[in-house]
């Protein structure tokens, strides 16, 4: 027995790769298809339309295929309303719940398409009904008994971002992702331009920072970018803040004087002493206010009201009183920052970049910089459509970026 | 003005590198020295002794040098008792507190040298006085008001492990650390022998496991090692457990069938569905008992009473009810396992390996396996004296290790 | 002024990505297009056809675009004969000569399409006219004065390989290229199957071997695969052969006993002594025949008449008398092997793999194995359509591969 | 039976690690020792002296140990003259010939110690007797019948460089080798200082250049350093020169415009066209003189009489007429440059850096820069005592270095 369903694709379905992907999905998963309608955009700025009849051996296989097509932007041709079921208990979703992508998504409710707010990957979609029904995402651990949750595949429309065309702005510059074979200075100039564009549009820039920023000597330039307002928010871990403050208190980072390179051995204990001092003061803000901390990235955040999130991890020393030690609470704080960000700079940290990336819709601009190509690749693979990667040394990148951004003022 | 202090070195101070290191420390840090006594071991199994007069320009510099010499096993020639001060508040240590190394350490109390228990890096040393005084380490966040804490440098003796000599057992095989230029099968055979040696001495083996173990197809062989009692404890994260259970529930890992490699696209949602199923059951143990989970590493842990710690992180989905989301609580659980372990296998995880490594004394045997040489190097640099590193594919390593271990029964 | 040209695409132009690529090329390069005809294959096994009118601002830009479309399989709609010009001198090609891709290529000569033989990248196409005209590739340094060389873009048809469909054989298993997130044992089993399939079809397997094969302990298993006929030819460098023979003469590789791991220091000079011994004998074959060399990969090559090419490089010690020190001569020898190969195993060598890869058409099956993901990615990017990459430890890969291949006999 | 021999160590044998290494060598290789005399330098600037009696089970083992001690600077206490034997044929050395280290070496001839000139690794030592006897190294393939070649271990003295003390000059800054955890800008400033120091001492700087220099946009700054005389010689491959010239002829590097990043696809054929143009001209110098090449690194070399060596490899396209295709000839050209260099910058090339490094004595200053930490580690391991490594992006390194060097003029 063969079962079939019609799906539709529209938009720049050829040059976005959507049509290729969908054909591939069907064949990979053992199904077959017939192109029932195909209306190709005659010019590069016209949209195309295709209707496919997808067939499979049984209903389960068909559902798997249609689910996967969904994720890639093909939608059922004869939409019904999304199916809703109440959550049976806190943190427990109904079986067969719909797990989100990070692409813009709508659901059909009462015959109307409504946007799913705060879209991010691997969430449930919750619908608040009533006069002005609306839909939004919830991570599993936030689900409450009775939440109306979308299940199944019907009545859901996903829109993977299309390939930028024509005047693509600053973010058009590195299509095709990562490469260590690009000219570094030109790429940095383009990233600087994208930051300026974001700021001039009134957008917010979030920097996700790893401790290598401090060891590699990029601290002062990063602090300037915070002070001058090119970075609006910081997402980091306990270690980043400790290294930054150690530099202020002792002039070292992990015990090395980052200016003279002198006495590489001296001061290993500075790290733990720094933590102890901040605990004694009660926190970073208190230590800035008391005059104990007088410079650096954290100092500029406090001094200029740039919000920061320090998320804890099991490798932390201390931690500082400001560090959120509970992973779920920390994710909530990260999520809030991520949703406010219009552009995200991921700077030399895998753990924190993945955590932030998990909360981003595919439409947020992302720049990922690391000296390890595997880190950059892995971050880009997770999925922003507007992500660019650069394999470089953070210790030369930040100074050159600061020069570009601040000199053009 | 010049200030001086005498320090002593004893043991195999030449071939352990201790003497070279100490000479280097003094010169790097701007001091000078005179060798006042030197009694070299005439044979390779005789111990040597040296007394150095270390000089510096001022007391602060001298203290820095002596502190650093300390960390490397040189001790003041005229020991006084360690200086103790009460902690002024919870989590607040007295200024100038002594921050530990991971080497065996004694303090001088009331004229007697007593061991510091549960030694690990970057801790305070707390002394309980009374009839039977004893000393032990506390991490900063565990310090309580009134704890008597060692400060300064006096009355502390550190013993970095010496180079193994003569019959070095299985762990002699890879002195000189990591290399990707060693024969893989022979190295694996040596690691297998070290595991057997540890077990035959009644020791406990802790495996620190990253999710790549599951993707790479090593799950079944790792599960066998747990079942057969060669691995006594598991330390991992939420992701490892989810991937392991996903394989049981859906036959996939991150959506790919790990046996047939079929349908690489199907089943991306299996990951989040797995979490949802375990939450529904109430936890891993409950899901094993109800028959929902029937195989795998976590299954064998539950079925054979092998304790596991799942430490949360900000990149987790879910998480599972078993995952300890608070970083400080998770560190405590990790610390307990680490102190019980006689041998630690660090398998394809940076984050969890660092967290476990932070809690280990330098005398614990450590094997670190990763396909990224930077990960192996970084882990070994942190400091076990008995650590060996291997740069290899975890997906071929575990099967070959299991073959070696289980075939020799 | 706008200039235009018609180009045609045919085949599985959507799911092969050809159409997407061509749309992207035109837009990236500042041109525009109109789809004049589009006939989509209704089923997954029907071919499609598209005719595009490509426009650009001037003739130069149009030519650039059409050139690039060409490389990706789009051909001028109104083919003329290819334009031929004689080479003005040895090694000198006419201006505007056509530089080849590695895809199957035809040229139009006297109104007929004829295949270009021995296709490989970055060559000139030479046409021998006469009664039975034929076309073939020549690298620049082989061009002779008077050779008739194809210039311009007209009369050339390139066919990039299509995505495999349906029964894809053993090589379907790893579409999507490299990943370190695949199950290792299953992937190795698939590679074994592909070797067996190649052999059972009467094909030849070429192994490109780096010295890490020997250090990592894979020598004996590789030698078995040569002896048993699963590897027909070896392409390597001087270092590989020296290490292999050192193991035979001294039991060491770079001075380390690869079985006992004993005495890692002893025998550094074995490397240079090995070279000296082989020079004394006059060459590898002579040293095998005299009984000096009694085992190993080179021994099996000589003993079983498997041809080998040892290509010299500037980092060689010695070199051995068998090593071809001239790069151009060595390339010619590599080219001959490459053209005979039906499947190529690239094992832990960047330099030799690139050299061999440069001579392969995109239709040859390639497996690339290295522990460095960057090496695997770079090799696959160069372009075989049937290439699969595996990031693993060569020292565990070869033994497991040999087990798979030889146990299934 | 036990056999013994006395060896002596002198110099800063403790803090250079020599004594530790020698103790380790003896124990690793199964021997034993007695310290017969030990006279320690009392101050940090006094030299020490030790005489060891080394024992082993048999003569062969003893010789192996003494050989290895030799390589590390311990010399027989009762020196005889070196043993000399004539080479039996061209390229054939006597059995048991002495294979060199890269450390300063003397041989005892007729009761006198004479320096071995042009020391480099893995060579034979040839002695010209006569009135003014002298000794020098020859690589195996340069040995001629009748050359008097040193065999055995007697009469040879090796001096591994000692750890720098006190005022160490610019090259003291990065003892301890590579690290990606150093501040990048400060490290670059130190390298700039070392270049200036070398130049002010009348020394010569050799830059070993990989093609990534061009792709990454560092070409113009490198060309300035050549023009301004901070780089005296270039050692590179065919690819480097082609990419450099392509940028001049077509404004692209591997087809990408390195300034605008525009049209990443356009111009893949520029690479092969560039080669063709230079061949047409007859070579790089001719193409500069005819005005075809007007800028870039190769241009500045020709224009400013900075000698360059382009060594061929099997992955070359073309090659250019200037490329030395024979590996042995190329090595000779590299050797000549290497012996003239006082400082070597190894910039993003493994193959050429190893080739140059093979010809360097351990006393030459080496800076090795690469974005891949494995490359840096491997190059430093091969052995210059004055080598420093930096893991960074060559595309940001060269501009920042040029700024440092040229701004301080």
Automatic annotation (TrEMBL), chains A, B, C, D:
Q: What is its EC number?
A: 4.3.1.12
Q: Does the keyword NAD apply?
A: yes
> What chemistry does it catalyse, as a reaction equation?
L-ornithine = L-proline + NH4(+)
Domain Arginine dihydrolase ArgZ/ArgE-like C-terminal second subdomain, chain residue ranges per copy? 190-401
Q: Which domain of life is it from?
A: Archaea
Could you tell me the keywords of this UniProt record? Lyase, NAD, Nucleotide-binding
Domain annotation LOR/SDH bifunctional enzyme conserved: ranges: 4-103
Pfam annotation, one family:
ArgZ-like_C_1st
InterPro entries assigned = ArgZ/ArgE-like (IPR005239), ArgZ/ArgE-like_C_1st (IPR048964), ArgZ/ArgE-like_C_2nd (IPR048963), LOR/SDH_bifunc_enz_cons_dom (IPR007545)
NAD keyword on record: yes
Q: Which family does it belong to?
A: Belongs to the AgrE/ArgZ ornithine cyclodeaminase family.
| Biological role | Catalyzes the conversion of ornithine to proline, with the release of ammonia.
Q: NCBIfam families attached here?
A: TIGR00300 family protein
Q: What is this protein called?
A: Ornithine cyclodeaminase
């Amino acid at each position: 027995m063969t079962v079939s369903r019609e799906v539709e694709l529209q938009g720049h379905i050829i040059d976005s790769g959507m049509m290729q992907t969908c054909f591939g999905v069907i064949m990979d998963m053992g199904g077959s298809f017939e192109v029932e309608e195909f209306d190709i955009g005659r010019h590069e700025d016209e949209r195309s339309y295709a209707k496919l009849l997808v067939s499979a051996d049984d209903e389960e296989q068909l559902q798997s295929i249609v689910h996967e097509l969904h994720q890639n932007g093909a939608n059922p041709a004869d939409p019904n309303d999304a199916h809703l079921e109440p959550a049976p208990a806190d943190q427990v979703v109904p079986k067969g719940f719909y797990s989100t992508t990070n692409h813009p998504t709508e659901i059909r409710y009462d015959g109307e398409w409504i946007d799913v707010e705060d879209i991010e990957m691997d969430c449930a979609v919750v619908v608040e009904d009533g006069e002005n029904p609306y839909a939004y995402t919830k991570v599993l651990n936030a689900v409450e008994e009775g939440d109306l949750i979308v299940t199944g595949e019907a009545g859901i429309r996903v829109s993977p971002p299309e390939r930028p065309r024509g005047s693509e702005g600053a973010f058009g510059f590195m299509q095709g992702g990562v490469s260590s074979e690009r000219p570094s200075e030109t790429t940095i100039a383009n990233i600087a331009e994208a930051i300026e564009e974001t700021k001039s549009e009134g957008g917010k820039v979030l920097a996700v920072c790893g401790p290598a920023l401090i060891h590699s000597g990029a601290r002062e330039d990063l602090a300037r970018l915070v002070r001058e307002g090119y970075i609006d928010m910081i997402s980091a871990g306990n270690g980043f803040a400790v290294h930054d403050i150690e530099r202020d208190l002792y002039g070292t980072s992990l015990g090395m004087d980052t200016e003279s390179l002198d006495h590489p051995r001296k001061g290993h204990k500075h790290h733990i002493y720094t933590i102890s001092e901040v605990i004694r003061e009660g926190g970073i803000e208190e230590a800035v206010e008391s005059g104990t901390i007088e410079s650096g990235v954290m100092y500029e955040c406090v001094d200029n009201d740039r919000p920061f999130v320090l998320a804890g991890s099991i490798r932390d020393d201390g931690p500082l009183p400001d560090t959120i030690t509970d992973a779920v609470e920390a994710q909530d704080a990260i999520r809030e920052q991520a949703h406010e960000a219009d552009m995200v700079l991921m700077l030399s940290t895998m753990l924190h970049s993945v955590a932030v990336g998990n909360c981003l819709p595919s439409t947020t601009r992302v720049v990922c910089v690391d000296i390890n190509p595997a880190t950059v690749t892995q971050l880009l693979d997770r999925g922003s459509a507007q992500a660019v990667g650069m394999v470089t040394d953070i210790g030369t990148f930040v100074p050159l970026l600061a020069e570009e951004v601040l000199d053009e003022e």
